[in-house]
Automatic annotation (TrEMBL):
<dbReference type="GO" id="GO:0016226">
    <property type="term" value="P:iron-sulfur cluster assembly"/>
</dbReference>
<dbReference type="InterPro" id="IPR055346">
    <property type="entry name" value="Fe-S_cluster_assembly_SufBD"/>
</dbReference>
<protein>
    <submittedName>
        <fullName>Fe-S cluster assembly protein SufD</fullName>
    </submittedName>
</protein>
<dbReference type="InterPro" id="IPR037284">
    <property type="entry name" value="SUF_FeS_clus_asmbl_SufBD_sf"/>
</dbReference>
<feature type="domain" description="SUF system FeS cluster assembly SufBD core">
    <location>
        <begin position="169"/>
        <end position="396"/>
    </location>
</feature>
<dbReference type="Pfam" id="PF01458">
    <property type="entry name" value="SUFBD_core"/>
</dbReference>
<dbReference type="InterPro" id="IPR011542">
    <property type="entry name" value="SUF_FeS_clus_asmbl_SufD"/>
</dbReference>
<dbReference type="InterPro" id="IPR000825">
    <property type="entry name" value="SUF_FeS_clus_asmbl_SufBD_core"/>
</dbReference>
């Protein structure tokens, strides 16, 4: 019998040793646990559609140098933190100077804080279902620690720009940890961009811990180029009466993968998840979400839309788990998908697992094409076929795009969507 492939040991050799000692020890421990780690195969349920796109050659194990292009792609006033190839660049960043808000590199943390952080990292994600996040824990060279004190409010969004330079083969492992105390509030925007054309991998992990009454809005925008494999994970733990709102917008590539996992651990916790994905050519995008209703009186609302053109492939796997003590839960999941060509493929798998008897839950999924009657109506009234296709496709996702609470992100998304429509409907 052929043995299952395992992670090459060259991936377990971190390049940088600039982290404080507790984090170096944590990274070493996580790396030792990955020795001979089986890689996903077609039989791995949550990777069966994506494993053939996962490329982990030994050359990719090389850490990319911490340099890259200057500036950001989101032209907006506000607070910015820049990561280049997984390492934070203080001179390119603009931190807020507000009472009760602490934003620091892992390298700059005091002994007490870094010891506590080492204990708390990796406590938001299920390592059995988010296998590749374990590689980030063994390889991160830098990270960003965001701490909001009780009732602290960040007055403007914080933009974290992840720049990757694909001028040589290698990989980057950015890490973010957000600790939001009672009744604190902030909006965090993560934008992933790239330059160059060499094969690279970005393996990123962001963790949020929300105390009672905290309110966090997370916006995630994936815009990397065609040579970048992107494997990301976001973990969230919520205490009582907290609220987490997520807006994920992704454009396809050779491999795009995002795992979003939430645990509603306190009564009255709420979450809202919106997602938009567009793919074309031979691009690939795989979204996996999981919401654990652990406490009673919690609400979750999830809406994802996929559009696939050319010979591309989009996947959505959403799971809601209502635990036995999570009475009075209210959970809704919707996934709608639009195929723009006969060669495109979309796979959707909504899951609802309920162990409580006093709940309101619903889930549903659809896959279809543009409505021919609506298309004929527009064309018959003088609208060009390309414009008609574009209008109907925009209408399919505009509801979610308009809900993005940051104007600069909405504009960036609309700009990229215009490019997508131009390429997709150029022969219409």
């Amino acid at each position: 019998m052929k043995s299952a492939p395992t992670l090459s040991r060259v991936f377990l050799e971190p390049a940088g040793n600039y982290l404080p000692e507790p984090l170096l020890e944590l990274r070493k421990k996580k790396g030792m646990a990955l020795v001979d780690m089986p890689l996903p195969t077609r039989k791995t349920e949550n990777w069966k559609y994506s494993v053939r796109h996962l490329k982990l050659s030994d050359e990719l194990a090389v850490a990319l140098p911490s340099r890259g292009k200057e500036g950001t792609s989101l032209s907006t006033a506000g607070y910015h933190v820049v990561f280049r190839n997984g390492v934070m660049v203080p001179e390119a960043s603009d931190f807020p100077d507000l009472d009760g808000i602490r934003i620091q590199r892992f390298c700059d943390l005091d002994d007490q804080t870094v010891a506590a952080l080492a204990e708390r990292l990796d406590n938001t994600l299920d390592s059995q279902t988010v296998q590749m996040a374990r590689l980030n824990s063994a390889r991160f060279e830098d990270g960003l620690f965001i701490q909001l004190d009780k009732e602290a409010v960040l007055d403007q969004p914080l933009f974290i720009i992840h720049e990757v330079t694909a001028s040589s083969v290698g990989s980057a492992y950015p890490r973010i940890y957000v600790d939001a105390a009672r009744h604190s509030q902030m909006t965090l925007v993560e934008e992933y961009i790239s330059s160059g054309s060499e094969p690279v991998m970005v393996n990123t992990v962001t963790e949020f811990v929300l105390a009672e009454g905290a309110r966090i809005t997370s916006v995630r925008l994936t815009l990397e180029g065609e040579s970048v494999q992107h494997i990301g994970a976001t973990g969230v733990r919520q205490a009582a009466a907290s609220r987490f709102e997520s807006h994920c917008v992704g454009f396809g590539g050779p491999l795009r993968r995002h795992d979003l996992q939430l645990r509603l651990e306190g009564e009255g916790a709420e979450c809202k998840l919106n997602g938009v994905v567009v793919t074309q050519g031979k691009q690939h995008y795989d979204n996996h979400t999981s919401i654990e209703h652990i406490a009673a009186h919690c609400n979750s609302e999830e809406t994802y839309r996929n559009i696939a053109a050319g010979q591309s492939h989009a996947i959505f796997n959403g799971r809601i788990h209502i635990h036995q003590d999570a009475q009075k839960s209210n959970a809704n999941m919707s996934n709608k998908n639009l195929l723009l060509s006969t060669g495109a493929e979309i796979d959707t798998k909504p899951e609802l697992e309920i162990y409580a008897d006093d709940v309101k839950c619903a889930h549903g999924a659809t896959i279809g094409q543009l409505n021919k009657t609506s298309l004929f109506y527009l064309v018959s009234r003088g609208v060009g076929r390309r414009e008609a296709n574009t209008l109907l496709t925009i209408a399919f996702i505009n509801e979610l795009v308009e809900q993005i609470p940051v104007e600069a992100v909405r504009e960036a998304v609309q700009f990229r969507l215009n490019d997508f429509f131009t390429q997709t409907f150029q022969e219409a």
